[in-house]
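Fold sample X.
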Amino acid sequence: MSSRDDILADRLNAEPAIFKGCSSSELGIIVGVAALIWLPVSLLLAGLLGAVTMGFGIAGMGVVGTVIVMASLFQRLKRGRPDGHYQQRFSIWLSDLGLRWSPFIRRSGAWDIGRRGNATLPLRDR
């Protein structure tokens, strides 16, 4: 059978949930985007108040708050849906805006093979 030394993580089909249903890659993206937004804004506000170093503390609290709020939002978006559902919805949304090409077939209606007329079959020699 199997030994006790097997690493169970090698047999996972998807990334495991780390925090509020988000995987580590999703949390990394949330933290990165939150830091890109909060750091300049908080440094600017703290600079206007005369205490630039206070901006790093404000940015840290903003990033933590953003991670908690966005992880809760993703948890609600992902509830009861298959893996990768919201990535597909996001791709379709970008396609609707014309910002990105989506690989999904979204046409409804009758399909046609594109031929016109009847095809003739060659006769076999007997």
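Fold sample Y, listed below.
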Amino acid sequence: MSRNTLIAVICLLCMAAESATAQPKLTPVRRTTIVTSDPEASLRFYRDLLGFTVEYDQTVTDTGTLALLAPGATQGRAIALRYGEKMGGSIGLFWTPGLPDQITCVSPALPGAVSVLLLTDNLTELRAWLDAAGIPSVTLPASYDQSRGPTEVYSVFDPNCVRVAIAEIKNETLSESLNK
């Protein structure tokens, strides 16, 4: 075997070993889906109060889709909500018959709890809006410094006990925050 052939074989073996151990690539998070016992209450919170738009709201009967969140179920309701036009940053709601009606929100968060982070350009005004709508705070506003400057954040529970943290980065406009 010639030296060039040997080098080519070694290169091919290295590339094969490298591709076999390379981590698969992922996209940014496209959607976070929340299982809800009351889709109408969730729509009132995300669509009517926070201003998300409904991308789709459909009955689901195929076993492949149902297997993701409700194995064995024969029917469900899938709702996709979006705020803005970019890919990602959407919230899914999923309901299927037989879910418990009563849930208890707890603080501090338990393992496995999820929090959704939203940015705003006026936390004081948004907090007053949510207070007027009767949405109780989970935390009072807190300020801290981060690499992007002073930030103020507070959180509420959505109807499914998911924490919705809302932050204002004081040194940036909202459009600057979205582009970082």
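Sample Y note: The radius of gyration is 23 Å.
Also: The chain has five helices and eight strands.
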